[in-house]
Amino acid sequence: MKRAIQITIGLAVLSLPFAAEAQKPIVYPAKGQSATQQGRDDAECYAWAKQNTGIDPAAVASTPPSQQTGAAVGGGQRVRGAARGAAGGAAIGAIAGDAGAGAGIGAITGTMVGGQRARQERDAQNQQAVAQQQDLINTFYRGFGACMEGRGYTIK
Length: 156
Prior knowledge:
single chain, 5 helices
């Protein structure tokens, strides 16, 4: 499961440089504009959208979102998990007659559960960073589309 999540995030990060181009709207010259005119309008609307949104999709796409990697230990989830596990294990162990062994088993189990929670939080933060980057690109292209529509093109 963990490996699948890492592969998914890795593929998302690798595809980001292509995301800006993949998200560019399709422009149709609805009023018979020539290819030369369309190229000129495209360049002018790109510059207009960049200036008015403050977003350069090429720069956004070429800058990978800040990804957290490595061991997931940041928020103290393992320590809290170990403490909860030890307390629960001690209680169960006391009933069974060996509170110390129960606490040890509970602490180990709690540490693993806490580590899983930390990894889930890290993965959620990484996905949020990718989504924020895509939102910036989408905002730029909404501006670009509005400009092109204003010049008589159909945008999809």
